[in-house]
Amino acid sequence: MFRNKLSVVLAACVVVASFGAVARADESAAAPESDAKLYQQVVDRGVEYMITKGVQEDGSYGKDLGPGMAAICTDALLRQGRSPDDPAVAKSLKWIETFVHPDGGIYSKDSPVKNYETSLAVLAFTDANADGRYATLLKNADKFLKGEQWGGETSDVKYGGAGYGKHKRPDLSNTGFFMDALKAAGNGPDDEAVRRALTFVSRCQNFESPANTTPFAAKNPDGGFYYTPAADGGSEAGGTSDGGLRSYGSMTYTGLKSMIYAGVKADDPRVKAAVEWIKKHYSVDANPGMPNSEDGLYYYYNTFSKALAALGQTEITDADGKSHNWRHDLLAALAKRQKPDGSWVNSSKRWIEGNPNLVTAYALLSLANAKQK
Questions:
Q1: What is the DSSP secondary-structure string of 30-90?
Q2: What are the tens digits of pLDDT across the range 311-352?
Q3: What is the spatial distance between Cα 50 and Cα 358, in angstroms, rounded to a whole number?
Q4: How far apart are CA 253 and CA 292, in angstroms?
């Protein structure tokens, strides 16, 4: 039951100045100097919460939530500088290893969410693999994940996507984590699985192009992304009166990030359209497009930060012409929302964002993505 809930949680999201919508500073642009001190204070409190109240004695973050929860929480600690040999991290990595299967997947027994669990585990083990200790495990997991990807005819709307591992259709959230894992494992834009995934990602965009001839794109052509065009289509933001699918923030950032990972360039119309959507809906206070703007907010922060870091710009100019340092804005929003014990939790419980371990992991990962290089 809890693993099924976790699957829903996680399923909810080298650019140049010619974009126009993305503005004036590059990666060297600095946030206010005070941000560095605030950043460390916020991170330290979040990490302290995870290692004193989050992780269990056996290394899990709740046995009922399986290796996916443990992996995302462990990766948050690794991304914030904890060593694989840190006691809290080491026991979690060891616990997650107990879920490695002969087929290379890393998932709970009879799991309906094999893609998610394995993808999240790949991210954690990659970040713990500086000395090569998990090289074989990662190679096998990469092979497993590629075997879970939809194949068949390219005309099939499901082609190239990734799903939970049990359900009968792929979606952009699953495919986004799948793309994260492929990238972490060293697969570049020329990899066959990455190219196939790009086909599916393109079909999740409200933008007509040679790469997207689905009926949804023409009905709501705003350049954003929705959950899936498969199985008659679906969007967590709902539909339009004429049968279109509404775009929303977490999926738009997931789609943009995935296109960048697949090597889509700044001048590609798909990327330009996605950036235009971001310009019109820039926010660190809401998951834009969602009827309840708090739903999936911390998942949104994670996709927002991954995509904008991949985009390679620090300043974003919104539809009103106002320039935003997104790193500063995100830090301020997360600092404001942090609880006295160092954790984060969403007022909206949808997709298990009432669970402080999951939400604190999202927050720490978002801050890691936003850290100035």
A1: PPPTHHHHHHHHHHHHHHHHIIIIIS-TTS-S-GGGHHHHHHHHHHHHHHTT--TTSHHHH
A2: 998 999 999 999 999 999 999 999 999 999 999 999 988 888
A3: 10
A4: 18
Say how many domains are in the chain: 1
169, 231 contact by CB (below 8 A): yes
Q: What is the DSSP letter of 18?
A: G
CATH of the domain at 259: 1.50.10.20
180 within 8 A of 190, measured Cβ to Cβ: no
Q: What is the mean pLDDT of residues 119-128?
A: 98
Question: Does residue 236 belong to any structural domain of this protein?
Answer: no
Q: Whole domain around residue 71: which residue ranges?
A: 2-229+241-370
Q: In terms of C-beta density within 10 A (0-12 exposed, 13-18 middle, 19 or more buried), how is residue 227 classed?
A: buried
Rounded CA separation 176/306 (Å): 11
- The verdict on residue 234 lying in a domain is no
Which of 137, 60, 118, 51 is CA-nearest to residue 87?
51
- The DSSP secondary-structure symbol of 323 reads E
Residue 235: inside a domain: no
